[in-house]
Amino acid sequence: MFDQNALVQFLPLILIFVVFYFLLIRPQQRKTKDHKTMLDALRRGDRIVTGGGIIGTVARVDNAEEVLVDIAEGVRVRVQRSTITSVLAKPDPAAARDAARQKAEARTRVESKE
């Protein structure tokens, strides 16, 4: 009698915990995992947004904790990876190669004129 009564009393608490797990805890764990995966996949040329709202382009990935970001022409800042909230765009490798080739050709033309 006592065991059945105790089970009936604890059943609502157990149900509340199950609902909290599926509606709050599990989605938060998934979001954290996705954010970590995004940060691990950061590469040079990615357009990012920091926690402070600064939009920039990844210039160099220094180490596991820091990234060098171009925020304006000639302005680079070091930010912690954990402050990066989202990646806006990933560069197309072929387009980046073409842009580098065009930049090198333009530099060669300028040097040859001098």
Structure description:
The protein is an alpha+beta fold and 114 residues long. The protein folds into two domains: 1-40; 42-114, SH3 type barrels (Roll), CATH 2.30.30. The chain has helices spanning 2-40, 93-113, and strands at 47-50, 55-61, 66-72, 75-80, 84-89. It has a five-stranded antiparallel β-sheet with strand order 4-3-2-1-5, with helices on one face. It is rod-shaped.
Defining key terms:
53% helix, alpha+beta, single chain, 2 domains, 114 residues, SH3 type barrels
Brief overview, please?
With 114 residues, the protein is an alpha+beta fold. 53% of the residues lie in helices and 26% in strands.
| Rg, Å, rounded | 25 Å
Number of separate helices: 2
CATH fold title of the largest domain: SH3 type barrels
Structural class by SSE content? alpha+beta
Give the overall pLDDT as a whole number.
Answer: 87
Secondary structure layout plus pairing:
Elements lengths: L1 H39 L6 E4 L4 E7 L4 E7 L2 E6 L3 E6 L3 H21 L1
Antiparallel strand pairs: 1-2, 1-5, 2-3, 3-4
